[in-house]
Amino acid sequence: MLLSTRGLSKQFAGLRAVEGVDFDLPKGEIHALIGPNGAGKTTLVGMISGRIAPTAGRVLFDGQDITRLPAHRRMRLGMAYTFQITSVFARLSVAENVALAARRRAHGGQVNAVIDEVLERVGLPDRKDQEAGDLAYGHQRLLEIAMGIAQRPRLLILDEPTQGLAEGEIEGFKILIRDLAQEATILLIEHNMHVVMELAGRITVMNFGAVLAEGTPEQIRASREVQAAYLGGTSDAAAG
Ligand SMILES: Nc1ncnc2c1ncn2[C@@H]1O[C@H](COP(=O)(O)OP(=O)(O)OP(=O)(O)O)[C@@H](O)[C@H]1O
């Protein structure tokens, strides 16, 4: 396993946002985390990445207990995280944004090589010198992914990466993720069920802070519990 959680829990005041989650992510998998709004997905991933301190439980990365490691130390171990809301530096150029991320792992002349390589991979090589804030929204999301890849992560966590993307951009995103999966394990919080069903090898469904179901896309699509969580059990919500 590249990543495991055991009994991972977070309470905000009286609210149990995440409760006793045991989660396992094998190396090389594309894994989707889905669930209704407020199910606890972002909180769970926040505890995995080190942005949120758990109330109870443990996080293991490549066999090491990292529960108490700060986020920047987890990055150095090979975790990269892109946010739900774009987090690019609007006044810096595309290349400068990538350089900030690349310097976490590369040095000197290597940084320029990493910039060229990752911008090529996400399809933004022509945008290198443009101010990031001037990019179209979909391109800003791709830039964020480029910043993630530039850290050469072993685990890449993407929080709602296709939100706000146009249909054509989503096609490009799927190709990009399949390509990235050759070298990194991918954990994807995603609301677009078509993307989830096409990309994910396995899916974990959360509801009310707990894991409701886990399985292949076929198993999740067929699960009555999952259908109930999404639509009161009346339809095949998980299919689309
Ligand atoms: N900092 C916080 N303080 C208090 N409550 C919070 C905080 N962060 C999240 N919550 C609550 O915890 C619960 C889980 O939220 P979380 O954002 O993890 O869900 P989610 O599954 O990611 O939802 P969405 O799909 O809408 O992003 C929600 O009820 C939310 O209101």
Automatic annotation (TrEMBL):
One of its GO terms (cellular component) is plasma membrane. Keywords: ATP-binding, Nucleotide-binding, Transport. SMART domains: AAA. PROSITE patterns: ABC_TRANSPORTER_2. The keyword Transport applies. One of its GO terms (molecular function) is ATP hydrolysis activity. It holds the Pfam family BCA_ABC_TP_C. Residues 3-233 form the ABC transporter domain. This is Amino acid/amide ABC transporter ATP-binding protein 1, HAAT family. It comes from Roseovarius azorensis.
